[in-house]
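[User] At your convenience, examine this fold.
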Amino acid sequence: MILPILTEPNPLLHKQAKPIADARIISAEMKKLATDLIETMRAKDGVGLAATQAGRLEQICVVAVDLEKQEKREIVLINPRWEKIGLRKETDDEGCLSVPEIFGKVKRYKKIRVFAKNLLGNNLEFVAEDLLARIIQHEVDHLNGILFTEKAKGLHKIDKSAGK
């Protein structure tokens, strides 16, 4: 089911999501929420989506991986957190489904180690670099009530109708 996406200035976007208890992680409800988040992200042409963007203050997000390949796949991250690997940061343009048509330059770590649980309740730990690292940092920010616009420099609006 395609979920409605909250947009700024909705106050829920600025609230911290609550961790999901281990017993709920493997529930049918969580599987349904993850499926709906993936379907919504795909329908909206996103590369990541946090539950907070759909009005659910729970620590779950979905992230597109293998972006260059024909057949895209997603990873579900429950109660995710990350830590930097090294000090290298990179500044790049970001946008957000919750802040339509606004883009800005955000400095983020280039390489991170990610810790989360999957839908089976198993621990995940992996290294993410470049675009995948950026997307995960963006989505974890959402779960912490932070929008990219709070970190971005040079915010500007893109009028999608101008190209038509």
